[in-house]
């Protein structure tokens, strides 16, 4: 199927998305990167995961994130003032800015680990993209190739970092330092898991965090870069 008319493409993506969905190749290509998060879900799984994450993106929640956006933007502006007269790679600056903002809005006080997570996910995305070229060969994803070994190692490190953040939230609640897991995306998902809502488990939470962290950063940084260039 090849569509070139914008209206037909719009209709396909909006009205018939549950039918078309993500292909096996797309899902396998990103499995080591963002797992089975919302971006790669189909049908009922997509509706379920969208409903699960929606509370983190209500109007009031987004207004609450504004302080993080302003703070990170001020820090970037101050850094750029020191480089007046020098050439600046604006794409890289926007990637750093959006990574900082999403680290704060998704992980709150654990934003430093969020930045480390972003660096690992950047490398992991590149490796998964390279490994995808070999998926057409049956069984290639099971072979101990260089790409597969590196992907497995980085994925383990990413999930180790996420588990450290999750365990820290759980410990704070258990010892009474905090009454909830927080009001950021991670906190909302942990609260849902704790109340046995949406059949959540830790792996699903990690996959959603990776999905929103990287896809949200990628699209926003590109938009900001093109806006400034134009």
TrEMBL record:
Keywords assigned by UniProt, alphabetized: Heme, Iron, Membrane, Metal-binding, Monooxygenase, Oxidoreductase, Transmembrane, Transmembrane helix
Matches recorded under SUPFAM superfamilies: Cytochrome P450 (SSF48264)
InterPro entries tied to this protein: Cyt_P450 (IPR001128), Cyt_P450_E_grp-II (IPR002402), Cyt_P450_sf (IPR036396), Cytochrome_P450_Monooxygen (IPR050665)
Subcellular localization(s) per the UniProt record: Membrane
Subcellular location, principal: membrane
GO cellular component assignments: membrane
Membrane topology term: Single-pass membrane protein
An example molecular function term from Gene Ontology annotations: iron ion binding
Obligatory cofactor(s): heme
Domain of life: Eukaryota
PANTHER family, alphabetized: CYTOCHROME P450 FAMILY MEMBER, CYTOKININ HYDROXYLASE
Family: Belongs to the cytochrome P450 family.
Name the UniProt record assigns to this protein: At1g67110
Species, as recorded: Arabidopsis thaliana
Organism placement in taxonomy: Eukaryota, Viridiplantae, Streptophyta, Embryophyta, Tracheophyta
């Amino acid at each position: 199927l090849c569509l070139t008319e914008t209206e037909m493409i719009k209709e396909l993506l909006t009205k018939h998305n549950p039918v078309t969905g993500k292909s096996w190749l797309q899902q396998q290509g990103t499995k080591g990167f963002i797992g089975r998060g919302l971006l790669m879900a189909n049908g009922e799984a997509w509706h379920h995961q969208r409903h699960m994450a929606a509370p983190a993106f209500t109007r009031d929640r987004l207004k609450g994130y504004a302080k993080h956006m302003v703070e990170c933007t001020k820090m970037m502006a101050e850094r750029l003032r020191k480089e007046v007269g020098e050439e600046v790679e604006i794409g890289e600056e926007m990637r750093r800015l959006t990574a900082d903002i999403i680290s704060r809005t998704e992980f709150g006080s654990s934003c430093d680990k969020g930045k480390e997570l972003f660096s690992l996910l950047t490398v992991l995305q590149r490796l998964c993209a390279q490994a995808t070229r070999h998926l057409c060969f049956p069984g290639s994803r099971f072979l101990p190739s260089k790409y597969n070994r590196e992907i497995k190692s980085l994925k383990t490190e990413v999930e180790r970092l996420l588990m450290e953040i999750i365990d820290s939230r759980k410990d704070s609640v258990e010892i009474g330092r905090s009454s909830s897991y927080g009001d950021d995306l991670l906190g909302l998902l942990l609260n849902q898991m704790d109340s046995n809502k949406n059949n959540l488990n830790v792996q699903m939470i990690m996959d959603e965090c990776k999905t929103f962290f990287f896809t949200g950063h990628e699209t926003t940084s590109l938009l900001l870069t093109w806006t400034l260039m134009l």
